[in-house]
Amino acid sequence: MTSAARARPGRSSRGAPPSRLRRALGIPLTPLPLAAAARGAVALALPLLVGVRTGAVIPSVMAGIGALWGVSQDGSDPYRLRVRRLGCMGLAAALGLLAGELSLRSGQSAAVTVCLVAAALLAGSISLRGRVASVSGMHLLLGVTVGSGIPVPGPWWQSPVALLAGVGLVIALSATPWLWRRHHIERAAVLAVYRAASEALSAAGTSAAEDARRRLTVALDHAHQVMGRHLTPRGRAETELRALLRAFHVAVQLGEVASALVWEARPLPRAVTRVPLVMAERLLPDGGRVPASALDTAAQVSPDARADSPGLRALATLYAATEAERVDEVALHLPARPWHGRSAHLRYAVLLAACVLVAQLCAEVLHGPRGYWLPMTVAFVYKPDFGPVFRRALHRCAGTVVGVAAIGAVTLLTTDTYALIGAVAVFGALMAVGVRHHYALATTGLTAIVFVLVDLLGDHRALYTARILDTALAAAIVLLAHFALWPDSAAGRAAGQTEAALAAAHRYRDLAPSAAPAERHALRRAAYHRLAEARQAVAHAHGEPSRPGRGLPDWEHAIAAAEQLCDAVTAQSLAADPPSMPPTPWCPRSDAVRE
């Protein structure tokens, strides 16, 4: 390795990450999701318009509830995954709605309570097993909450069918673009890797290099997840997909080269930093949209294969391979995210059921049979796998206050049905934006829409103040139960993720020197992926209040040291004579947060 690589100028041996404020300010804002906002507006307003025009208001409102929940789970991931998630969510919500409705029609308040608690136990037992299971479990409980809390006239099967129709509308609006831009999402994800690689090379030798390399890892992880189902051979692939696969395999190898150049810690000329963009234009000619300034240097970007840096030599080799269309495929599989233990599943299920039970008892005391808002809020707030519970509760309360104020202002101006449906369209677009940017913003839109839907069902009571108090009470129930009985859940998960990440980094260090290129790429991807997940879990743990006088271990130090270790291994793998390895990163003991 070069002397510059050994000295690592500008980087401390401790490798402490930047502050939270710097991380927050360093994250670029994503573009406004106009297409998703339009889908949210249409999906929520169209059923109501049809219902008002045809006189079938009750089924249209239930379809609106289905569309509301569908918009909350709409995303920008591949169409196949999107349809699967929305479909499972819709079926779970319809089953929950049916169960809740039947318990309400029994006329026994005990039947409603038992149904809610049973649904909470089932939802909690499956919610920590992955994204689709989590979404399905939450909406199963939401369906029971609405079905048991809002009496709806008509046959027992009408409401679940109408709810499924609303979810189906969201699926149709979300997946229709697949017909004319089938692999657009995959192309955008792969292209983002090349852009992130160019940014990482531009930051080499500066204090921003490590953050840029981490953004490259995040882009590679996202592209890997998006392309995952295409990496398994499934017969003869179409031309566009073959080109995408080839571009992805190059991107994986480019990630190794960029990490090595970042480790070498010396500024690179513009001709080198533009190489990834030119490669993207070559491999993705129909969607690269590379700036013209990059293409103007296409004749100058080919690095010299005799360069004095292993990273530059590797970049030159990779660039020449893409020119000659000789690209080796890399068999990769992202490691599965470690599941929570059985005890965590059981504890979460019991705590969620207990919170729902307390909320339902409070609802019966405060509101009689129309107190569905309390258990519904518990179902929304108590989702530790969606982020810090404390922050989610605060955002829920803030969004409810703003949503109540917003819909209150609208009803002061007009009570015309069509005007209210127009307001639903606006709030639906706002909610779709909030789903991607901020939970409080999404809650604002959802709260306002629910008020209009309930009004269309015939409940014209002024419940603005009551709903704010209900939300605060439900959030307090969740926070009290969670931090009294499971205060170390986020810390325990962070400890487990950090240990798994360090193990992957050590495996990469031990096996990479003797591994074949394909195996080395797989080891490297697994290590960086685990480290990125661990960093996210640690941020989650820091978002939760800790017990007084009991701080969290310095996981950031261990993760940063492991990242430097992986950077060094990557650089050494590309060098002719690997030097001695850096010391093993220190891992703080996690006994204090393990139970």
What does this structure look like?
By secondary structure, the chain is an all-alpha fold. It is globular and about 80 Å long. The chain contains 24 helices and no strands. Helix 5 (79-105) runs parallel beside helix 7, helix 9 (184-203) runs parallel beside helix 11 and helix 19 (417-437) packs antiparallel against helix 20. It folds into three domains: 34-179 and 337-485, no CATH class; 183-323, no CATH class; 489-593. It is 70% helix and 0% strand. The protein has helices at 3-7, 20-26, 34-54, 57-72, 79-105, 109-126, 131-149, 158-175, 184-203, 209-227, 239-264, 270-273, 275-283, 292-296, 310-323, 342-367, 373-381, 389-413, 417-437, 439-456, 464-485, 489-511, 517-542, 555-574.
What string, H for helix and E for strand, traces the elements in order?
A: HHHHHHHHHHHHHHHHHHHHHHHH
Largest sheet: none
The residue ranges in which pLDDT falls below 50 over 5 or more consecutive positions are 1-28, 292-303, 576-595
Shape: globular
Strand-pairing-aware structural class: mainly alpha
What oligomerization state is this entry in? single chain
How many angstroms does the end-to-end distance come to? 44 Å
CA-based gyration radius: 26 Å
Helical fraction equals over 70%
Overall mean pLDDT stands at 83
Strand tally: 0
Number of domains: 3
Strand percentage lies at under 5%
Number of helices: 24
